[in-house]
Design goal:
The protein has 272 residues and is an alpha+beta fold. 53% of the residues lie in helices and 13% in strands. The chain has two domains: 136 residues; 99 residues, Roll (Chitinase A, domain 3).
Length: 272
Amino acid sequence: MKIDGELVEPEELSAEFRRLMQSQQDRPDALRLPEEEVRTLAVEHVINQHLILREARRRYPHVKPDEVRRRTKQLKERLGAQFDPAGHREAIGDDVRAEKLVSEVHASVPAITEEAARTEYEANRASYAEPDRVHVSHIVRHTFGGADPGTALTQIMEAQRLLKSGSPFEAVARRFSDQHGQAGDLGTFARGAMVEKFENVVFRMKSGEMSDVFQTEFGYHIALVHERLPGKERSFEEARADVMKALRERERQAALDRFVETLRQASEIERD
C-alpha cells in the first residue's frame, strides 16, 4: 500500500491486524468481527495514523523538551521499568505532535448545551440507567503462565471441600487463591468489567450464594456473591455528567473523523 507514493511497510499493517485481533478476544462471540473485516479495518487505521502523523509533523516541526519529558514519563508509568526511551526518541516526539494535533481538532468542538444533553437523555434513557451490579469474592487457581492444570484443579477442589465443611470463605481464599488480596474480594461491578465466562456465572447467582467450581480462560474459580444490586433508572440530574461526557466524546470523534476525511480527500491512496 502507498500513500502519496510513500510505501507503507507490510509489517506495520500486520502489527495493526494482530492488535485488532487480540482486542477481539475480550468481546462476546456475537460481537466479534470476521477476520476479513478486521483486516480491512487494520488497513484503514494505518492510513488514518499515517495521515494524522504527517499533518502533525507539518504543523509542529519542533516539540519542546518538556513536552517530550512529560510523554516519556507517561510511557514509563504505563509500560514499566523495561521501557527504554533512548531508542524511541523520534517516536515519542511524534506521539507529542499527534497528541497536539488531535487536541487542536477537539478544541474546535463547541461546548455541549444543556438542551442538547436533555434531548440525548430523553432519547436514550436506558443507556444512562444504573446497570445491575454484583459484589463478588472469588478463589482462583490459575492455569496459564506455566501453571499445571491438574494441580490447579486438585487445589480448587480442596478449597471447595473446606468451604462445604464450614471454613470461612475469606480464610480459604487467603490460603488457596492466586488472587488472595482483600481475601479475594473483587468489589462491586457491572457487566463488562470481568471476562464473559465469569460474569455469566455470577450474574445468575443470588445474594449470599456460592458457586460450584467453574472454569474461565484464567483458571478454576469458586465465586461468592455477597450482594446483588439491581439496576435502576437515573434522573437527568443524576445522569447529567455521564450524558455530557458521552455527547462530548461523540462530537469530538465526529470532528476528528471529518478532519481525517479532508486529509484523505487531499491524498492519493493506493491499496494493494
